[in-house]
Specification:
This protein is of the alpha+beta class.
Length: 943
């Protein structure tokens, strides 16, 4: 038999071999990143400092405490979390309410910027500091110092905070919390984690003694369990001096409590849990095979092992992704492999999980087990392995290229993990160097051998099944845990066949169109934007930036969209883009595209927006041609596939079948219907019947009616590219797009907010929680300048919600006011206020909100509040000016709304020009007590 060479795979192998460099010794220790200053004070406190230029004039601060809820004594349940709350309620240098007020005055937003989190094993405090004023960073370090050892923790302050924590617990209650509480004992397997959920219990929140909070603080907030992290636009030497000044004075306790590291006990015997709940939005099954500890890499050999595991993970994801594209898929989505255990440090497990679809839980278990068996017995196809290697190398290359322009907030996770888990922190450059040297030498046989070693041959030790209580077919009983375990055992005995090794072309397109031309060119020096007109009439806006290295964003827009299509076609049109995107392009399915585009970071999505046709794309700098090819094929060669369509319909219908079981979803739908008078053109959440009624050809024809022509499109490119290099690509792949005639207008479907006052109560859900929502809105004559007082009005109201409803009256944990002000399809505004609370507090929340609105209407905002929201807006704007996405969206609005694009340079002045009287006038005009909708969600048993 003649053996045919797999030329794409051969070429990929040759390229990998050429790119290889001399491999380092596997016993060599991985060095730490030279860009990070890593140190330890004499008292044991660890610190990390890295200078990072993006964003300018901003430093991210973190205080990490290696103690969480698992360290709590029996009388301290939830007190690690309550202590975290107390960090914002009085300390040595900031009296109660002063800390939040000070940080807001320099532009730091409570919740969005300033925040903290408590987990099982650690507590992390987050503080970004704008450094446009010299003293800000010093004050920020004072805040961290107070968190570390300066909290006052008075009985009164602790008691005052209990109701806020209780509101947080109630806000988070629901199916997700109930299922977690049911499954945690099984997952923890008898370990201490099983009764240490960080939120605590309602009884402990209300009744734990203040002394229990202070004892936790004294025992665990100590320097040997703390790390201070500073990343941003700073001088590392000066930053180190700040750490020494602020933290050298921390003292270790005379007799420190032993810090015990806990781990879940290994799974030793079969066990299962079936959890049925009438509010479950989906059915899910999880198979747990084993748990084990694994230390982070310290040597080059350890890092090589990580690369093998990453290749294995990619290959498993490819395998399971293809299963979801079968016409009769065994599940909606699934996967298997190693993953971190949600508690414990350096604890991992081998698991398989699926979202159960129409085929049922038995089919899902069969597929999960069989794919594991197939990988263990036969390994992976060579073509998939080549794609995985290219993707892995490309990801390390991108991380290295992007290092200089990464955001400071994205850097912190590495140092947090290092402090908590250990290992080495080589940095993106060194990791890329290792990857280039090591990946080409990793063989398919080696990855297959690893698959045999890590995928258990024995049945799972634990099966967890959560499902909607009514998902079992009529007349049938829900499966028992024993039945699910038996099904997994039986599936392991089923025979499996070797997966096909399907060769694919090396290139996305086998030909290049005869290029068009660029017929007009102009430059806007102020914006740094070049405008091109192509020979087919398509316009192109080019904004090269150095904001994010090796990243390019693309957007093509024009008026049109869903509402440009006939009303009768709306039920199908709303799915048209999703159906077409699920088909692939040309002769390639989405799974094929994964391999053809191996080593490239390219994405394209054609979308019918409500009032615009849009194509969104992104790529790395070197992959722009592939992105444009994919765009060309999506316009000229959209794909039709009956099997993928059936898969889309089946998975879509099952995904939404029980979504309305969630009380929040029922409330959101009722709110939309009420606010807009149940208008027939409303885009309500889809039902299974909406998917099942789709016709493939009609749905595709609706998409192609708009998206098979580029007439009237403006393509916008923002990112790391050179204009002269992109021009010939535009001439080849954009100037040659078809421009058949089609209407370039949108249609106003007449959806309007109801007039007058409407108040409606919705009863849904079993938990004792409520939502109070106000919707103000209506038609206005659009005036861009008017949007700024309206937006700042929402910001001021958010401050008042925090200060009055949360901190003073203890009625809410959080709340939010948001605004929309739009020109399309006609001038209109909407102002929404959403306030989660408890049922007994709903009327108090209503009264408190109206009190704040009336004060703003009568007197306008206080000077301090106006300054705070302006500072926050200015800080956000200055950061946004260095973000590609911000420019892309602004240029998009310029195209669709005919807005002067130079407005992006005037926003600072727009913000500064808003006065207290402007906000007062906006409150009087837009928050009309004679024209609003109020919706209140209450539990089903509420009177």
């Amino acid at each position: 038999m003649t053996k045919h060479l797999n030329f794409p795979a051969l070429l990929a192998g040759l390229l990998l071999a050429v790119s290889a460099v001399a491999a380092p010794e596997l016993t060599e220790l991985v060095p730490n990143n030279p860009n990070v200053k890593l140190g330890k004070l004499d008292n044991g406190l660890t610190y990390y400092i890295e200078k990072n230029a993006k964003p300018a004039q901003r430093v991210e601060l973190r205080l990490v405490v290696r103690a969480g809820s698992v360290q709590e004594d029996d009388d301290q349940r939830g007190m690690a979390h309550l202590l975290e709350h107390m960090a914002f309620n009085g300390s040595k240098h900031f009296k109660k309410h002063e800390l939040i007020a000070y940080l807001q005055s320099i532009g730091v937003r409570f919740g969005a910027d300033l925040n903290a989190s408590t987990g099982f094993d650690a507590t992390i405090y987050m503080l970004p500091i704008p450094t446009d004023k010299p003293d800000n960073l010093e004050q920020g370090m004072t805040v961290l110092e107070d968190w570390a050892h300066g909290l006052t923790l008075t009985d009164k302050d602790i008691d005052d905070e209990r109701q806020i924590v209780l509101q947080e617990k109630r806000m988070r209650s629901g199916y997700g919390q109930r299922s977690l509480e049911a499954m945690l004992p099984k997952l923890a397997n008898g370990s201490r984690y099983q009764d240490r959920l960080p939120i605590g219990t309602e009884d402990s929140i209300l009744h734990a003694r203040p002394e229990a909070v202070r004892r936790f603080y004294a025992d665990w907030y100590r320097p040997d369990l703390m790390a201070v992290i500073m990343v941003g636009d700073l001088d590392p030497v000066a930053a180190e001096g700040m750490i020494k000044r602020h933290f050298s004075g921390l003292k270790m306790p005379a007799k420190p409590r032993p810090h015990v590291s806990y781990a879940p006990a290994p799974l030793t015997r079969p066990d299962a849990l079936v959890f049925l709940d009438k509010e479950a939005p989906s059915n899910n099954v999880q198979l747990y095979y084993a748990t084990f500890g694994r230390k982070p890499p310290e040597t080059v050999g350890d890092f090589r092992d990580v690369l093998v595991r990453q290749l294995f993970s990619q290959l498993m994801k490819m395998r399971f992704s293809r299963l979801t594209q079968l016409a009769e898929a065994p599940f909606l989505g699934g996967g298997a492999g190693e993953s971190p255990v949600p508690f414990g440090v350096n604890q991992y497990g081998f698991t398989a999980a699926a979202s159960v679809g129409k085929a049922g839980v038995n089919a899902a278990i069969d597929a999960l087990v069989q794919e594991n068996t197939r990988a263990r017995q036969y390994g992976f196809p060579a073509a998939d392995f080549d794609a995985a290697r290219q993707n892995l190398l490309a990801s390390y290359e991108y991380n290295a290229n992007a290092r200089a322009t990464r955001d400071s907030a994205a850097v912190l996770g590495t140092y947090i993990r290092h402090f908590l888990a250990g290992g080495a922190i080589p940095g993106a450059d060194k990791e890329h160097e290792y990857a280039k040297a090591l990946v080409p030498a990793i063989t398919l046989d080696e990855v297959n051998a690893y698959a045999r070693s890590i995928i258990p041959a024995a049945p799972p030790k634990l099966v967890l099944y959560s499902a909607h209580a009514n998902s079992v077919a009529a007349g049938q009983a829900a499966p028992t845990g024993a039945e699910l375990l038996a099904r997994a055992e039986a599936a392991a005995r089923l025979a499996v066949a070797k997966a096909d090794d399907k060769p694919l072309p090396a290139n996305l397109m086998s030909y290049k169109p005869e290029p068009g031309s660029i017929v007009a060119h102009s430059e806007d020096q102020a914006l740094g934007v070049t405008t091109l007109t192509l020979s087919n009439g398509v316009k192109v806006l080019l904004k090269p930036t150095d904001f994010s290295k090796d990243k390019v964003l693309m957007l093509a827009v024009r008026p049109g969209g869903l509402y440009a299509l006939p009303e009768a076609d709306k039920p199908s049109a709303r799915f048209a883009s999703a159906v077409q995107n699920a088909m692939g392009v040309g002769s390639y399915t989405p799974a094929d595209l994964q391999r053809v585009l191996a080593g490239k970071a390219v994405a394209i999505s054609a979308q019918l927006m409500p009032y615009a046709d849009q194509v969104a794309g992104s790529s790395r700098t070197g992959d722009i041609e592939s992105m444009l090819q994919l765009n060309y094929l999506s316009v000229t060669s959209p794909r039709r596939d009956e099997n993928l369509f059936r898969s889309f319909v089946s998975r879509g219908a099952e995904a939404v079948r029980n979504r309305s079981a969630m009380p929040e979803m029922r409330f959101a739908e009722a709110r939309m219907k009420t606010v807009y008078g149940n208008h027939p053109q409303l885009d309500l959440p889809p039902k299974p019947a909406d998917f099942e009624a789709l016709n493939l050809d009609r749905t595709l024809n609706l998409q192609r009616a708009r998206m098979s022509s580029a007439k009237g499109m403006t393509y916008i490119f923002v990112g790391d590219f050179e204009i002269e290099k992109i021009k010939p690509l535009l001439a080849t792949y954009v100037a040659t797009l078809p421009v058949a005639d089609l209407p370039l207008t949108f249609r106003d479907p007449g959806i309007r907010q109801v007039r007058g006052v409407v108040r409606q109560e919705v009863k849904a859900g079993v938990e004792q929680k409520s939502q109070v929502v106000f919707d103000f809105g209506g038609d206005v004559e659009y005036n861009y300048a008017q949007s700024w007082p309206l937006g700042l009005l929402a910001d001021v109201l958010n401050l008042r919600i925090t200060d009055e409803l949360r901190e003073k009256q203890k009625l809410v944990y959080s709340g939010n006011a948001s605004v929309r002000y739009e020109k399309t399809p006609r001038g209109a505004y909407g102002f929404a206020i959403m306030l989660p609370t408890s049922p007994q507090n709903a009327e108090k929340v209503e009264a408190a909100v109206w009190g704040e609105i009336e004060r703003l209407q009568a007197s306008g905002p206080a000077a301090d509040d106006l300054n705070k929201v302006k500072q926050a807006r200015l800080q956000s704007y200055r950061r946004a000016l260095r973000e590609d996405g911000y420019w892309l969206n602004h240029l998009r609005q310029g195209v669709l709304e005919e807005r002067d694009p130079h407005e992006i340079l005037k926003i600072e002045q727009r913000i500064n020009d808003v006065t207290a009287d402007d906000i007062k006038a906006a409150a009087q005009r837009f928050l009309d007590r004679k024209n609003y909708v109020e919706m209140v969600l209450k539990p089903e048993d509420a009177n």
